Each structure stands twice: as structure tokens, then as C-alpha cells.
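Entry for LLH complex. Fields follow.
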Amino acid sequence: MLIEAVVVRVFTTTAHTAVDDAGHRHPAPEHEVRAALLEITDQDGRTGYCQVQPDHLREPVLSEHIRPVLIGRDPWQRERIWQALSRRQRGAHGGLTDRALGYVDQALWDLLGRRAGLPVWKLLGGARDRVPAYASTMCGDETPGGLSCPEDYAAFAERLVKRGYRGIKLHTWMPPVPFAPDVRLDIRTCAAVREAVGPDIALMLDANHWYRRTEALELGRALERLDFSWYEEPMDEASLSSYRWLAQQLAVPVIGPETAGGKHLVRAEWIRAGACDILRAGVDDCGGIGATLKAVHLAEAFNIDCEIHGNGSGNLAVLGASDNPRWYERGLLHPHVDFDQAPPHRNTIIDTLDVDGTVAMPTAPGLGDDWNIAHIAEHTIDTW
Ligand code: LLH
Ligand code: MG
């Protein structure tokens, strides 16, 4: 059964968050946004879906790179398709991103799972049927009672623990917030949260991503004293040497790389260089489910964890298929946003939190997303 159509369907939906000038997400009044689904359909009329950023998968990318590889190909040749796309990246000069490969890979896995009548995490190995979730906060802001000061973070952390979370990751302040970045403020915030939740809750920090080495070291030393479980992206990840320098001086585990290009290959270099104690990969950064699993298994072979960046069904599929990530990243969360409310284009959310702080793997065939197909059809504004 061969692939017959590859379409991006753009539709409108509503959101309660928006990104600032630097791409960090914050609460916003309810407003209409554009979203999109990548749909890969076979000759039987079965379709695999992946939600995509419409501006990250434009028509020229589909027509010049993706359709020529996929149309007429057996979807069960998923790795062959991925390798063909991966090799096209060099000649595409940035036009075919790791993210685009990730979207295609997830939609293909969804199609294969639906064809097999199995959830993808089971097809991939079935390592566990639920995973502990950590609460991942939004970045700091200037909203009183939001995430505007150490006391706000501490109060929010107490709420999260009552909700069942056994782990919390703080994203602190980053520009364009006018008083950011500020190492001392980050330290005071981490201390306030540790004080609020006590010693038994795992805490992690994802701080300003552009500190200098000396600032990153000062912050890392404080995290050691506060018994944090990991320290994430305090510097530009393009500098492997800086992370090696940092990891060699700190006892708190340094995790990375989250956003560096180069898929599983660059992650091998980070392990080899001793630039991280915990590896990091996610389906949208690393080129899809297959490539993220390569990174996870690579880490396993070195007896290190690989923590998964981001939420969603593709990342859950990886988590259900492996056991050296410890956590699912649930968020981004904020005291003023109801994360449990499904947006209109979904009937239910994929990652309901149970009282014990875990999330169950989906049971439906494929990736398990519960799309509101009627809403999407009625609100479609473009297809390419
Ligand atoms: O800078 C941000 O807005 C966050 O760090 C964001 O990228 C988030 O996805 C993240 O890093 N989670 O770990
Ligand atoms: Mg991060």
C-alpha cells in the first residue's frame, strides 16, 4: 500500500498563550490562531497526522523535497524515507529543517500505527505504559501573581505539588523581560522554590540560554547547594566547549543539547566530549521519533539518561518505548493558564495528569491524538 497524498491543512483554532519577541510563551487573552495538520494518506485512504507549525512546513518544502521522496513509496519504509530526506538536507541549504523531518516522521508513525491497529509506543518496544511527569513552567514575566518574582514561583510550585507532580522545572526570566537575565534573581528563585516544596521534590532549572561561562558556573554552584536534579541550557548550545568546561566543574548534572542542529549525530559528539551528564532530545528538535530513539539508545549504551524535550504524542511514543528517560515534560505551565483544557481542534488532551503525578500512554492506534475532525474541517482556511 503506497503513499498517495501529502497535504498540509491550515485551520483556525483558539489559544490562551502567545509568544513574545524572542519566542518565549506567556499567557494571553483568548484569541484566534492558525494551526496546521500534516496529513499523509495511503492508497487505502488511511491517513497519519502530525500537528505542525504552518510556517515551518510551507508548500515549497512539500513540493520540492517531501512529496518527491514520499509519493509512491511504501510507508513501512519509514527509515528509508527518513534517510532520503536527511540526505536531501545538505543540498537544500537550510530549506529542509530537522523539524520538517520530525513532522514527516511522526505522521508516518501515526499512519503505521493506525494500519497495524497498535499505539506507536507499543510498536516501538512497549517499555512502559505510564511515565512520571514533571511540571515545566513558562518563562518568567512581569505579571504579579504570575511568574514575576521568587515568591510567585514558590506559590506556584506548592500548587503543582498539591496537584501530584513529583518534579518541577523552572524556566526563569529571559529577555525581552526588561530585568532579565539576572543570575542572582535566578538563584533566589530556585532557593525559594526549594524552600517551598522541601527536599523530596525533584527540581530542575532551564535558565537564560545566553549566560557567559562565569555566570553559568555561579548559577550551577547554587543549584548544587539546592540539590537540583539537572541544569539545562544556560549558554548558547553552539559552543560545545563551553558545556564541556561547565560539566567538568559541576556536580549538578548538566543536560543537553536541546536545540542544537545535527540530530543524533551532534548528540554523540556531546557525549564523547563529556559536555553533558544527561543527554537531551525531542521529536521536534532531533528529526522525529526514529532519530530521537537513536539518541535515547545511544545514551543507554553509555549508561546515561536521555531526557525528552517537550510534550505531545510523539514524545510520549518515545517515552513508552524506552526506559532511560525518567520524565515526561508537561507544560509549559503558568498559574493563569488552564493546561488541562483541550483546544477546539482536539476532543481531549493527550497527557492527562493522574493524581500520582504520572501520565498514561495513549491506547488508541497510532500516536493517539484525539483530533476534532469536524472543527478542523469547518475551520480550514488553506491547504497545500
Ligand atoms: O526558552 C523557552 O521559551 C523555553 O526554554 C522553551 O524553549 C521550552 O520548550 C524548553 O526549553 N523546555 O525545556
Ligand atoms: Mg529546555
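NOTE: The domain at 3-117+373-383 is CATH 3.30.390.10 (Enolase-like; domain 1).
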